[in-house]
Amino acid sequence: MTPIIIKVTPFGDRGRFQAEIDGEVVVKSSRTPFLAAARFLKEYGVDPATKIVMRHQNSETDALISTVGVAADLTVAETGKPIFAKWQEFEHGDRPRRA
After folding, report:
1. Do the domain assignments include residue 22?
2. What is the pLDDT averaged over residues 3-23?
3. For a surface tag, which of 16, 42, 43, 55 has the fewest beta carbons within 10 Å of its beta carbon?
């Protein structure tokens, strides 16, 4: 199965990126565009086992590789050193739910 290629380009300032799939913007602005695009694909009904690849603008180098299911369930926790953590959807626009 051919992986879905997620192309990211800088958007604004402060480390934000836009994510596109086949030329269509799926994430307008995010600090974690690969993970946000994976959540978009999961909500769109793409098989969680589908391989996804992130590439930067004008590059054919694979920067990140995962599956929709794994990446959609992650976020980046920035408590000193950035690390992957379980993603929690925000409730009513407030704080994230605690596990």
Report:
1. yes
2. 94
3. 43
